[in-house]
Amino acid sequence: MRRATDASLPTFGTMSSKASESKMSSSQYSYIFKYIIVGDMGVGKSCLLHQFTEQKFTADCPHTIGVEFGTRIIEVSGKKIKLQIWDTAGQERFRAVTRSYYRGAAGALMVYDITRRSSYNHLSSWLSDTRNLTNPGTVIYLIGNKLDMESNRDVSYEEAKQFADENGLMFLEASAKTGEYVEDAFLKTAQIIYECIQDGRLDLNAADSGVQQKILQCETNPNVEKDKSCMQC
Amino acid sequence: MELSAIMKDKLNAGDNVVALHEGVLLQGWSPKAHRLLALVERNLSFGLFVFTTSRNPPQAFTDLTINFVVPIDSDFKCDIDSLSAESNSDIYINLSARNFKLFMGMDSGHETNHFFNELSRSMDLYLKNQQTLDFQWLKKYNINDIDLELGLMMNINGDNTSNNIITANMAVAENDISFPTGTQTLSSRESVIQRQMILSEEQYTNAQNFRIYIGTWNVNGQPTLSSLNDWLTCDSEPPDIYAIGFQELDLSKEAFLFNDSPREEEWLQAVTKSLNSKGNYKKVSLVRLVGMMLIVFVKNKHMDHVKNVATDTVGTGIMGKLGNKGGVAVRMDFHNTSLCFVNTHLAAHVEEYERRNQDYQNICSRMVFSNFIPPKTVKDHNQVYWFGDLNYRITEMDAISVKDLVRKNNFKNVLEADQLKQQHRAGNVFKGYKEGSINFLPTYKYDPGTNDWDSSEKNRAPAWCDRILWRGNSIKQLAYRSHPNLLISDHKPVSALFESEVRVVDLTKYRKIHEHIMKKLDKAENEYLPQVMVDNTEIIFHNVKFMEPQLKELTVANTGQVPVQFEFIKKLDDSTYCKEWLRIEPFMSFIDPGEKCDITLEVLIDKKSAYKMISGQDKLYDILVLHLDGGKDIFITVTGNYERSCFGCSLETLCYLKVPIKNIPFGKLMELENNKSNMTSDPYPVPKEVWYLVDHLYRHGLKQEHLFEHSGLRSEFVQIRNWLDNGTPDALPGSVHSVAEALLILLDSTSEPIIPYNLHATCLSAVSYYSQCKQIISQLPERSKNVFLYLCAFLQELLNHVNDNKLDVKTIASVFGEIFIRDPPRSRSDKSGHTRTSMSRKKTNFVYHFLVNDQSDLIINTSF
């Protein structure tokens, strides 16, 4: 499937007029990480995305008929990272089509609904798709959503934690409604990906690493004094 | 509701809409983005409002979003250009105000004149009443709000005067074909962040006072002294920053011609040694132009907070270039405050105060720190300290009176005659700068080595040539003095001590606010992703029939804020974006915000796809991926049911069907097609459908001219198809031409042709030898052989009536050659060395044998 990449970046830098900016907000992000969000229909994938990108929650959010897209720039170890997040339709009939979107994901958020056991039971099928369709370096984060509906809980934390441990997945429970732990899920995933890049476990040159590195602009160096002769006439 | 009424709802009470106009933002090749301009008045002051509309025309005030509000004041400019519109009545306007630029196109209409008349009237009114006008009411519209800024996705660029100009740079214009999601002009995003950070500076910085020592001395080319302590260490408490300027450091020809001077190092050493010993200092920068030198030191412990140090020099000597006069400057960011130190030596001679003013102006405009984008000039700093031998003298008072008055410490009267005070007061120089009160003796001119006034014949009036001025808020001068004990020069050194407020960043708060702004931007960025509504994502085609196209419409509405380019894209592993039986028109297009695009989907099951539907290889089901460039994908499901037809069935299957196909369940049909059925009854030798058609032609068409040459009618084909599929007792409908064509289509729609694909090549290489051709035919599957021989027999009969029907055997052979020996799908004729014509010729020859020879030997074994 054709998927366009980031537009080319400007090549010059703007030096800020304030001292602090040039020091603290280096003018570009260093990486782009691609994420996908997968899981059964109705587990709250789109809500997690909206909570993360727009800090909003829509009750009765319509089913995603396709693939939603969101973006946010975050900071990991002082590096700016742009997250491109693909939120896939959970309906079974779209499964064949959404498989196209896994490729090249650096992070995969696999979501189930803690109040609906069936969505938990299907995890192994989502996991096998994720494993088969992404590269071995892809960080898979398991998210039990709807933590705000504790009284209707159908899957215990311990059970899911065990599943995550057995399969080598990161795991947390979150609430797209209250926003609780939503940031954590996205940020921790980025952190792990970043660590993988740092220690070389993730090969950026691989076409499907899901990470694009941006060449940082060179800042102008104001310390180079101009060589101005007095005899210019 | 009328537009102006809607707009009134949007505005605060008491603000009146004077005139309205629609326009489109223009930038580059841009798809157009609609904007509404409104001229709004309150108490005779005017503002220009720029709106985006979520609906066009807007129905309620909620459809309006304010992008920009600019006051119609002295900074407001409006250029109208109708000449550049070659063709129609479009006009282009260039609006600019402080921090704002907008280039728009408009259709000129009857309201255009009104709008621009009102606009120019508002500008005139401003000029008349500017003293009394109050623009505070505009502030209530939150023009600094980040969301609104993003409404236009601005770029902060610098113009030459280095005011930050915000160009209304349409994000949409940057939408590359590829991936505009949030990446449109990253620099503009950064600029917005920077601007926001500057606006909220007070929230993350604390004011902190620092002591800044400024020193200036015209040393008259003298070698250095061993100690400068009297000058530089006169305060007990060590300052945080030293900025020390010299003039006439070196009067040698070498210095003048080559800007090379051993004195630089000597004086640097002397200064470094004489800095307050209670502080540890580090040199930030040294800059020299001929005799003008400036050295800046800060306490060691502050070095980490000194950033973006830059220097520049300006010569204002002869030709405006030579460096005997002019200035040198060092700029730096100290914590979050920008500082600029300017050391100048202005034109000499008593009468030349105008030249000194001019030198000042020259330095102001030519002193540029060009490694910044945009480049910075002196005035682009929070604090400026300007000092040096400014050379302003005392006129209007003779030397004796001056000396007499200053001896009595009566400086006030003398300073009345000071050119700098006079020129400064008159606004001719150092506009915006302050100077502390002078309570020290004039610093020029002394006999070197003494504290005696110049004894030369000129007998000049002593003057305060050496001065220190500053510009900026929260700067307190603690001391301003001269240092008469330093005797080597004809000037005395001067110094000033300042307590200056610097914004110090609170990192925790800074991060918090930065993060907050980033989040808001991300949010806005996501809101600015392309958005569409599709009115139907489940397209259902009912009762699709063979060779009868069906259309469905789909409407894609751009509900977002930016133009959308959409395209149907391929799914993984697919070679096309939709199934072969589906056509999408347009499959790719642009939609402007608020606009819609109708997409037509056409399903047509023809000979290429019919057999797949019958056999179950394919079905009326597809998921289309509607991709928004730079945004999301929408899945559109296409389903439907196909009405089975004999067209597309294999000859084998048809022979087993003793009743009309309508009465055969689909499952049964599929089993037959896949040879999985155990039919007990004997099959027909040839399909009844073939027989019906041939029999009809035999009875009605033997004498028909151009049979198999003229095409039939589409409507008659549909009737014939229905007749065959439904089995009606009436006579077969349609003209003989339509029946003939139906026969050809029936034979052409099977998954395998009569000569199976695997015999295609063999067949073509055998055409020269009838016996080999016969051999091939005898080996065909029984039903195919039957049909072949049956048709050949019929065609021979047809050719017996050449006198009536004027048919040509070669033409008939050619028509049936293409049918009997159908090319395999995607066959590459060039691969086998055959061209299309040579293949056709061979096919014709093959069939020709069977039309001119007797095949009773073949038929013997066949029972009809």
Q: Your description of this structure?
A:
The complex is a heterodimer of chains A (233) and B (864). Chain A is of the alpha/beta class and 233 residues long. Chain A is built from 7 helices and 7 strands. In chain A, strands 1, 2, 3, 4, 5, 6 and 7 form a 7-stranded mixed sheet that branches. Chain A is globular, with a radius of gyration of 21 Å. The N terminus and C terminus of chain A are likely disordered. Chain B has 864 residues and is α+β, with helices and mostly antiparallel strands. Chain B is 30% helix and 26% strand. Chain B contains 27 helices and 31 strands. Chain B has a 7-stranded antiparallel sheet. In chain B, strands 12-13-11-10-22-21 form a 6-stranded mixed sheet. In chain B, strands 14-15-16-19-20 form a 5-stranded mixed sheet, with helices on one face. In chain B, a hairpin with a 2-residue loop joins strand 6 and strand 7. The two termini of chain B are 81 Å apart. Classes of the chains: A alpha/beta (233), B alpha+beta (864). Strand 2 of chain A pairs antiparallel with strand 31 of chain B, so a sheet runs across the interface. Chain B: Belongs to the inositol 1,4,5-trisphosphate 5-phosphatase type II family. Chain B: Keywords: Cytoplasmic vesicle, Endosome, Hydrolase, Lipid metabolism, Membrane. Chain B: Its main location: membrane.
Q: What's this, in brief?
A:
Chain A is α/β, with parallel strands linked by helices and 233 residues long. Chain A has helices spanning 19-24, 45-54, 95-98, 117-121, 123-133, 157-166, 182-198, and strands spanning 31-39, 66-76, 79-88, 107-113, 139-145, 170-173, 211-213. Helices cover 27% and strands 22% of the residues of chain A.
* Count of separate DSSP helical elements of chain B: 27
Order of helices and strands of chain A: HEHEEHEHHEHEHE
How confident is the prediction overall: mean pLDDT of chain A? 80
State the helical fraction of chain A: 25-40%
Structural class of chain B: alpha+beta
What is the global morphology of chain B? elongated
- The CATH class of chain A is Alpha Beta
Q: On the 0-100 scale, what is the average pLDDT of chain B? A: 85
